[in-house]
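Recall the central idea of this unit: under ordinary conditions, the amino acid sequence of a chain determines the structure it adopts. In this exercise we apply that idea directly, starting from the sequence alone.
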Amino acid sequence: MAERAGFDGVEMDGSHIGPDCDRIQLLSLEHGLPIKSMIAQSPISYYLFDYTADHRAIEEVNPELLVFKVPKATVLGWPLKKLYIDQIKKYGEKFGRSKVAIENSCRSKMSIARPLFNLKRLRDLAYEHDISINFDVSDCAASGMDILLSCDMLIPRIRNIHFSDYGGHNTGGHIFPGFGLLPLGMLLSRLHEYKYDGLITLEIDQREMPYPEDDHVTLFSEMVGFIRSYF
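Accordingly, the structure predicted from this sequence is:
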């Protein structure tokens, strides 16, 4: 579907690759779609479980970028922060800091847990450790932040953008662009002004797709064309 829709790459969740690295690489070659970015495992699993499979997947698939989602916590905030920072430092030492990107997140509607880092601390952390930021547009809006002002603050460190819409607290996030409330065209114009040359990744909750599955290729193809028209 990604090939037919005109994508030039894909993002994958590293925890779902497992022993299928060879198959993934063959599929990537067959469809001409490199794996541009990979979601790395959480800080907790890094310390509690065997992470050699995660490293093997990264080494064999060799994505341009490793994305580390910021976890959420209540009373365990301080030790989790330390685990998280230790993790990204270890991955940076092993695979190169230029490959590491940390992603902003928001508080779940079903939980009182908050993200370990707000946007300002995320930016400071990226500068402190010379790593990049994965800017999740929908999560930024769900946190109550203006996506354009947040982009201005983070842009020197952004290397990947999780691009989706946000429909407000009653609808939720990661919905298909154009079916929510966000000024995504203005965001793309802002990125063009900044001469942004990083990745833009469509991250859509499949449960929020506006049309039946038969129309998804057409829908994604139109969105790819819309994004490219700004660059």
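The longest helix spans residues 77-95.
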